[in-house]
Amino acid sequence: MAGILGVGTGIKIDEIVAALVNAEKAPKTQQLDRLEKATTSRFSALGTLKGSLSGLQTAIQNLNKPSLFTNRTASSSSSAVLSAKADTAAIAGKYSVQVQQLATSSKVGLQSVPATASTTFNSGKMTISAGSSSIEVDVTATNNTLAGVRDSINAAGKDKGISATIVTDASGSRLVLNSSKPGAGNDIKVAVAEDGVTTGTVALTTQAFQSSASLKLPAFSGAPASTLFQSGNLAIKAGSTNLNVAISDGSSLENVRDAINASGAGQGVSASIETDASGSRLVLNSTNGTALEVTATASGGTPTSNALTSLNPAAGVTSTSASPNSTSGAAGVISKAQSAVLFVDGLKVVSESNTVSSAIDGVTLNLASAQSESDLAAGKTVDVTIGVDKGSVKTNIQKFVDAYNGVMTTAAQQTAVVQVGEGSKPVTGALVGDATVRGLLAGLRNELVKTTGEEGVRALADLGITTQKDGTLKIDDAKLSSALDTNFEQVSSYFTGDKGLMVRLDKNVGEYLKTGGVFDQRTKALQATLTGPGGIDEQRKALDMRVGKIQERLVAQYTAMDQLVARLQKTSESLSNQLASLPGFVKKD
User: Fold this and answer.
1) Is residue 47 included in any domain, yes or no?
2) Beta partners for 107?
3) Do 358 and 410 have their domain in common?
4) Is 97 helix (H, G, I), strand (E, B) or coil?
5) With bands split at pLDDT 50, 70 and 90, how would you rate the model's confidence at 216?
6) Whether the Cβ atoms of residue 164 and residue 173 lie closer than 8 Å to each other
7) What is the domain-level CATH number for residue 164?
8) CA 524 to CA 374: how far, in whole Å?
9) Of 145, 175, 210, which residue constitutes the final position of a domain?
10) Between 302 and 230, whose confidence is greater?
11) What average pLDDT does range 525-550 have in this prediction?
12) CA gap 480, 463 in Å, rounded
């Protein structure tokens, strides 16, 4: 329509029509703009308030967990020795712990072989075990090199915790076997059976291995035959073998040796006498693994003889095993499988793992290192303290107060009325006078002021939590800490349980946040105002259609008028011309 100019009148029809159309459209457009702005602002404000309320609901639900009040803390006075973790079954208290030794797994070096590419083994089968775990490796012409056997062991042992690597020293190359299973009795053993199918440069039987142990008992200055002992019993534990050797009154060191050998014959336990500058002593030997212990108990006897208990190993003396020899190439133990040994309040605890969960109910001790012999001898202990987890409760109370204050602040901002100057209209929040906000705040405040119970913690004020002038909450940290220290169980009852504050608040807040709740209904209604049937969008479309028809009608009317004027002008000109041609017509200049 732009640029339409009346032919007969010369008037600008487009400008006249535009002015008339705008005059018709402006009031309704302004009305819709105001409604859209108010609706959008209210929609956004409700979304902000809902987000703040969701944060409060999360804080309420976290504080409403009964498990929060049953959590336990566990601390260690020496994290270098051990750390501790407690579950809800742990009883608060302090425990004195000594760690004598850590649990370790078995690692052995087998007999070395020439470190050449041409070194091969006879064919056969290797059975490798570590406690109850075992694997079988078939050695054939396809894998009878040192590397081939290593790879076969790793393939078979990946799910059993058994692995192999190759180490080369001055004597040659050897397989080093490792087990991931700690604990006494889990020593690595290798049994070999050749089948005679393939002949290599080295017998496969050289790789057989049975760990052994020796234990030196205290030395005596007299000759073995004249060193006498009173009667008693020697309890010898060698791997899974247990021997009880009765010693008669007046037995010599040689007699004791012979009695051990007689009892241990065929069971992998023997004894010998070793003499050096310090005197003569018994040396116990076992082929049943690296664990070897002896306990002597006396039953009386000749006063002039040595007490049988004098055969008990000195403090800190344990069994030893031969290490791999880099000169001879002999196999040996690199590290022996042993259990952790610790004392809890003086009571001995033995564990296959360094993670000990059976010593103290509800408490897991994670052993990091053994104490030094001097610390053990001096009776030094590590204190493990189990307590109620008041810190987590306090943190969650603070989070609740912060979230509640967040809701109060958001509501205040959205309902604020700010005077900007004398004679000027005040600036108002999008939710001023909103019934939803009033109902929400009233419901929250009503729950906060209710008292429960008959004594102890009955209200937030008893915890040092008070309401300020602006409706937010403030915590008196000293009073809260005191309440947690003296009335912890009552604090739990006040917040949780069927009638606890958090249960009531959660129910109240849930009515607003749930699907189909108050906020859902309000936002759907506002959305309908914007885009629903009969909403602002449809009203704008209807207005555009109506204005378009008005515009068409006005253009048609003004165009018709202009055409009429044009015809009249032509008629006038024609009449003027005819009159001018009549006789006696005088044309005026």
Assistant:
1) yes
2) 178, 335
3) no
4) strand
5) very high
6) no
7) 2.60.40
8) 76
9) 210
10) 230
11) 75
12) 5
Identify the helix (H) or strand (E) that includes residue 341: strand 340-344
Range of the domain at 153: 105-210
Cβ atoms < 10 Å from Cβ of 196: 8
Distance CA 171, CA 324 (A): 10
In angstroms, the CA 450 to CA 408 distance is 19
Same domain for 186 and 288? Answer: no
Residues 279 and 218 in one domain: yes
Question: Which pLDDT value is given to residue 583?
Answer: 75
* Residues 243 and 175 both lie in one domain: no
The answer as to whether 257 is a domain residue is yes
CA separation for the pair 515, 339 (Å, rounded)? 57
The count of other CB atoms within 10 Å of the CB of residue 421 is 7
Both 373 and 268 in one domain: the answer is no
More confident of the two residues 24 and 387: 387
Cα distances from 408 to residues 55, 149, 404, 474, 502, in angstroms, run 12, 73, 6, 13, 17
In a domain, 238, yes or no: yes
Same domain, 422 and 499: yes
Has residue 158 got a pLDDT over 60? yes
Supply φ then ψ for residue 178, to 5 degrees. -135, 140
DSSP 408-464: HHHHHHHT-EE--STTSPPEE-TTTT-HHHHHHHHHHHHHHH---SSSSS-SGGGGT
SS3 353: coil
272 and 286 co-located in one domain: yes
Q: SS in 3 state form for 209-250?
A: EECCEEEECCCECCCCCCCEECEEEEEEEECCEEEEEEECCC
Q: How far apart are CA 176 and CA 370, in angstroms?
A: 26
Question: What tokens appear for 325 in the block?
Answer: 């020899």
The Cα–Cα gap between 507 and 509 comes to 6
Domain count for the chain, please give it: 4
- Residue 221: φ, ψ to 5°: -75, -25
CA 235, CA 212: separation in Å to the nearest integer? 18
Per-position b or e across 53-82, b if 16+ CB within 10 A of its CB: bbbbbebbebbbeeebbebbbbebebeebb
pTM of this structure? 0.68
CA pair distance 414, 429, nearest whole angstrom:
5
Alpha-carbon distance of 463 to 63, in angstroms, equals: 14
424 and 414 in a single domain? The answer is yes
Three-class DSSP category at 111: coil
The Cα angle at residue 91 between residues 90 and 93, in degrees rounded to 5: 120
Inside any domain, residue 374: yes
Would you state the structure tokens that stand for residue 506, as one six-digit string? 């959660």
Q: Which pLDDT does position 148 carry in this prediction?
A: 97
